[in-house]
Each structure stands twice: as structure tokens, then as C-alpha cells.
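sry for the spam today, last one i promise. C-alpha cells for design, 291 residues
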């Protein structure tokens, strides 16, 4: 509920009415996507930027085989003939490690497991060779073993294809294993941006600290000490009833009077580390140019 998926849909310009982009910038290879025409966006979607979603069962069409759906994307975006598109669909399924792709290409979505359906979605997304893949909670509906396999696959594809991945997840373990840079969001705003190692070693924003401290510790020393699990007090406010100033202020033990009056900008506190918190307002004189 903090705006991760909406941010991803904004990049693709796929926000449903009555939602709309009211500010900010999305720059991709020199093209400002927030003001690009619909014709431009149609060429960019699939060809340059592709997206995979949380639940492949609702993303795949149940009345067509998975091969037909991958081939259709190839014909649309790469102008291939029917046979070439079909051959490319099989090759795409083989690349994402679907067993017996020449046979499974004729399967319908309901005939595949959740992990295999997600592999099909990845194959479809990458078949047109995009530069950026947006993965919106790609492992949420999968068990731990299959989740690890999908994340390993994404990492391998990132290396072999020199692919940029915008990964959306609420799982801190997935972040630690997969990401290079991390943006932590709260009620639609980025509250901290950092390299992944720096974030886990020295979290800055009180919300980020609260998230990391609330992760269960399972070492023998932690269990023996019998320390209760840390929690963040209060609840996340409704999007229609956001508090003035810093949205996290009502739950923050470090809040100051100014936090509940003014919107806090992102402060660049170290090289490539930005924090939306007045605790760091004096570390560098200028606020980072981001909202």
C-alpha cells in the first residue's frame, strides 16, 4: 500500500482511470515518458520496457496456449512471420529453463504450475529483448523453493542479457539477495535511497530502521536472549487521510515539531545516499532534487 506498483505502472503509463500522473519525471534513454504520445508509448512497451506481474494466472489468457501468447507478442513487436514467431517462442521458453519447451509450448496456463507460469511470463517479457524489465512482486504467489529459482533466473538473465531490472518487493530478504540499489517507500514517497549494502549496514530513515529491526532473528544467541520482536507503533495512514508534513511523523519516536508542519525533502547525506528526514537536514546544505 505504499505505492510501489503504482510507481511501476506510471513508468509504463498504464494507470487506470481516475488515476493520473500529476507530477515528477520518468526519463528513459532521453525520452520523457510522462509527456510521450500514446504511439511512442506503444513502441516502447514490450520493445524497450517490459513488465511481469504478481500473479501470472491473471496475466495470461486462459483460452490460448502459452506458445500462442508468446508468439503473438513477437509478431506484434518484432514483425515476425508465424513460423519464425513460433520458433522464437520455443527458444524463449528454453532460455527460462522450462523443460521440454517444444511440448510445453502447446500447454494452456492452467496446465502449468505457478512457477512455470511465471517463467512463461518472463519468457514473454524478454522475447522482444527489452532494455528494462519491471518485475512487480514476481515471487509473491510462489513457495520459497520456487521463489529462489525465479530470483536466480532473473539474476542470470540480468548478467547474460545486460538487462536492467526494476524489482518491486516487500521482502527484505529478496532485496538483500538481488538488488544493487534500493528505494524504500512509505505512503507513496521515497523515504530512503541507497546502495543495498549501505542500507542494511547503516539504515538512516526511522522507517527503514523499523523495518529492519522488525525482521525475526533466528540465531542461537537471539533465541537464548528471549528478546521480543520489535514493532513500529501505530498504523499506516489511509491514502485519503494522510497527515500534514512527514507522513511517518505520527509513528516516529524521533519526530520534531517541524515534521508535522512541512513536507520534508530528500536530503543527500552521503554520496548516492538520500534520506527524507530532518535528522539529516544539516549533514549537507542542499536537498537532493527528488520528491
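last one done:
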Amino acid at each position: 500500500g505504499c505505492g510501489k506498483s503504482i510507481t511501476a505502472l506510471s513508468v509504463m503509463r498504464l494507470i487506470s482511470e481516475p488515476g493520473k500522473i500529476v507530477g515528477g519525471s520518468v526519463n528513459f534513454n532521453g525520452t520523457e515518458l510522462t509527456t510521450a504520445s500514446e504511439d511512442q508509448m506503444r513502441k516502447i512497451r514490450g520493445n524497450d520496457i517490459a513488465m511481469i506481474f504478481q500473479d501470472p494466472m491473471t496475466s495470461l489468457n486462459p483460452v490460448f496456449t502459452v506458445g500462442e501468447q508468446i508468439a503473438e507478442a513477437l509478431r506484434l513487436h518484432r514483425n515476425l512471420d508465424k513460423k519464425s514467431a513460433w520458433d522464437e517462442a520455443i527458444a524463449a521458453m528454453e532460455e527460462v529453463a522450462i523443460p521440454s519447451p517444444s511440448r510445453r509450448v502447446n500447454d494452456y496456463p492452467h496446465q502449468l504450475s505457478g512457477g512455470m507460469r511465471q517463467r512463461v511470463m518472463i519468457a514473454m517479457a524478454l522475447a522482444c529483448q527489452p532494455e528494462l524489465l519491471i518485475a512487480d512482486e514476481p515471487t509473491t504467489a510462489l513457495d520459497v523453493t520456487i521463489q529462489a529459482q525465479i530470483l536466480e533466473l532473473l539474476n542470470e538473465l540480468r548478467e547474460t542479457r545486460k538487462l536492467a531490472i526494476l524489482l518491486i518487493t516487500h521482502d527484505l530478504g529478496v532485496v538483500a539477495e538481488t538488488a544493487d540499489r534500493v528505494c524504500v517507500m512509505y505512503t507513496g514517497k521515497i523515504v530512503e535511497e541507497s546502495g543495498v549494502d549501505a542500507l542494511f549496514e547503516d539504515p538512516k530513515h526511522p522507517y527503514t530502521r523499523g523495518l529492519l529491526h522488525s525482521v525475526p532473528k533466528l540465531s542461537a544467541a537471539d533465541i537464548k536472549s528471549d528478546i521480543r520482536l520489535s514493532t513500529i507503533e501505530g498504523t499506516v495512514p489511509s491514502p485519503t487521510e494522510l497527515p500534514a508534513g512527514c507522513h511517518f511523523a505520527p509513528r516516529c519516536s524521533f519526530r520534531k515539531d517541524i515534521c508535522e508542519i512541512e513536507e520534508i525533502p530528500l536530503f543527500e547525506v552521503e554520496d548516492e545516499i538520500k534520506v527524507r528526514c530532518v535528522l539529516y537536514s544539516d549533514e549537507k546544505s542542499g536537498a537532493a532534487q527528488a520528491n
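The chain has a mean pLDDT of 90. ok im logging off now
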